[in-house]
Automatic annotation (TrEMBL), chain B:
It comes from Nonomuraea glycinis. GO terms for cellular component: plasma membrane. It is found in: Cell membrane. Residues 199-312, 641-744 form the ABC3 transporter permease C-terminal domain. InterPro entries: ABC3_permease_C. This is Membrane protein. Coiled coil: none annotated.
Amino acid sequence: MASPMADDALLTAEDLHLSFGPTPALSSASLRVHAGEVLALMGPSGSGKSTLLHCLAGILSPDSGRVRFDGHDLSAMSDARRSALRRTEFGFVFQFGQLVPELSCLENVALPLRLAGVGRRQAQRSAAEWLDRLEVADVAGKRPGQASGGQGQRVAVARALVTRPRVIFADEPTGALDSLNGERVMRLFTAAAQQTGAAVVLVTHEARVAAYSDREAVVRDGRVREQEYVR
Amino acid sequence: MRAGRWGGELALGVRLSVAGRSGWARLAMISVGVGLGVAMLLIAATIPSLVAARDARLAARAVVAAEPVPRGADTLLTAAVDSHYRDRTIHGRLVRPEGARAPLPPGVTRWPAPGEMVASPALAQLLTAEEGALLRGRWGARVVGTIGAPGLAGPGEYAFYLGSDRLTEDSATRIRSFGTRDADEGIAAILLLLGAVGLVVLLLPVAVFLATAVRFGGEARDRQLAALRLVGADAAMTRRIAAGETLAGALLGLVAGGLLFLVAGLLAARFVPADLSFYLADLRPAPALAALVVVLVPVAAVLVTVSSLRRVLVEPLGVVRRGGDRRRRLWWRLILPVTGLGLLAPMFSGGSGLTDGFAYQVMAGVAALLIGVALLLPWLVAAAVRRLGGGGVAWQLAVRRLQLDSGTAVRAVSGIAVSVAAAIAVQGLLVAVQAQYTQETGRDTGRFQVVVLPHAGTQERWSASLSTASGVRAADSVAQVTATPARSAAQAAGTRLKVGDCAVLRQLAALDACADGDTFVVAGPNAAVPRAGSAYTLGEPGERAPGWTLPASARTVPAVRGDLPQAGTTLLVTPAALRGTRPDLSFFDLYVGLDPADPDALDRLRNAAAQVDPTAQVMLIQTRTVEETLVGIRQGLLVGATALLLLIGASMLVNIVEQLRERRRLLAVLVAFGTPRATLAGSVLYQMAIPVLLGLSLAVVTGAGLAAILQATASAPIRFDWLGIGATSGAAALVILLTTTASLPLLWRLTKPGGLRSE
């Protein structure tokens, strides 16, 4: 496993500052993410961990500081370029899945591929494979509202992985699930990420979820306070 | 007991409607929407009383020449001197009281002396303004008083009473009182039909809009109800609470509608053309109609809310919509259109026997067909989108959304579909009516543009007066005298002789060649063409009446529509053809050519004419005549249609905005994983465009069919106004495009990735 201080970081945040109005969310936050590692961002509610994740993913732009992915400065990129980056290199899993309710689970998983220009049939074939790997092939034709919470979250994980991204950002991916379903989602999620070689940035405040990570970083008051290996 | 509990639940709904920012926002949306609809309904309810009040005032000042009235202390001589100034119409009367008890018209307290004028406030103001400088010299009178409201059609009307000592029994009407009991001179049944259809057409989309407005913010309301279920409210209670909430919005909407109605009335009173001006006191909705609006709008609002909740399961842990998998049934949606067709079917026999009952039947039939469009559209959209697939991501997102729930989009579109169907139907009817009421006169306005019909003054005086008027390039007269056949009494009726040079005779008939000395015969449809050599007595038969013989060279020519009476025979004679005969040529018309570069030439001519004879009529020679009532109906429909399109556009915009707000987090997620905003914008556009396209198709078919039925009703040949259909559909499509465009800034704002933040 890569060392946290090694120079071959895939994604780096350097001295990030970001405020929402008068409220500071990030104050000199710095972090490195290496290819293939699972990094858990932990911290109390309102500590700035989700904001840091959004900055790392190029969803939010910091007021100052720099985020680099594979040597490229995200803040120097146009909105369209960042969107393209998120479409091809990043994947996302959110607390409530946030699947498109009108599309079937299969179509939801195929959506990022279709946005990347892959043809419908090929996209749906890949999507079906990922649903199978995440053990939710049986809900492929159903709409998200017809699947259970755990199934929906696994569909969301499949959607995040289907483009074989290099980094997956997961914000409280099991926050809405019971412990049994949460364990199952995390087991399948981290295993699948390992198979594809994707790095995972995982925001959580649950120790049992963080236990799936290679490394933990604790965020307090908008700053990354501690980083340590858990494995 | 139960009533008390229900009342409490309704009251809770009212209380919830003002709870928090979102509650207030929803309440504001519903009340503004309902208010707009109510304002339009109140305006419609005001039209009958507005027209009645105006007609009553016009009837009260009317002069009716019935039986001869002997001169007395209570009689008045009066003659109409209506005129125009630029684009304004001026109603005037010359008056000469014949005694101390001569009648006064409404709004006038004393008679003007000769050379004095009592004017309407608008005319008095115009006469003192710079704009009216040219008009001041027309009658050369001093304004000594103003006509009060009871004597005017509206505050903007230009009207006057001018004192005259030159009026005689021959040139005026003698009356003992003003006014007539017949306020309504009657309107052609076909125009009544057109107005009735127009009214139905304008009001139906308002009803559709009202039904949409009370559903504003429905999804947020449903979540609120789910929270109430969690604390113990049962399903029936949630429906009553929802009803209470809607009722609050509807009642506030009634107040807002009343205020909007007043504001619209104030603005309209200020900005409508003078001919249509009205007094604010006339702005009283018919009490029965107003009561209907006040009662039906809240009741309908509650019914729509309760009906919309039938498709939603409000459970303690959330809201489940069950519309997606339910197939819409067609059979009951066909009942109204079929009923409408049934009501209209007898109209194919033509509208010759038009009665009030007929008008109601047509209104009911048209309303049923148009409501049928609103009912059929949800089925059509659901059936069509079920078969759609393929396409890009934007298309897929839109189609899937419509497949899951097309109701919201359809509700927004059904208003526009009904309007377009109705507009196409009315246009079709207008095309038919216009053909009946518009006449191509075939008149040549190259040399003469104006005809003056004097009642007094000699040809010499007129010639002298007009020749000095600036801007008058040519003036020619055509005199008229009765021609009585010497032998056949049967031909006596309606034979007249008109004397003028070739240039002026060409205004009356199509002359291929003409030279001084020529004579032409214009025979009416049923009149016999006189033979060459027929002898006539010119003027009133008597010892001094000169005789004249129709020369053998006389040619029969067709008349130009306009100045010649259709019945009887007219002999057009150039001066040399009279061969020394000297009939009495004191009755004549003047044809005047004006300088086209001088915009004031016509008003200078009117001034010059008024100096010689204030009662002379100065008329523009028109190449086409259109029934004025028809013009009024078209203007009314245009104003109504414009207001309607704005209303529908506003309604659609609110719908889109509401949907976007509801989905803000999902949209932010889509953008987070790289969905281009153009894809999302495309999805919004498709979600609108697909129902609109289907709605417009249904509207075109229904509207064109309805137009054909109405044309048959009007006994007119059936023809489709494709240009009008295209323009109407295009305008509707433009509203959709503009509405979608207007929603894009909000879409950009909502799809900022910061929308993912929840803390």
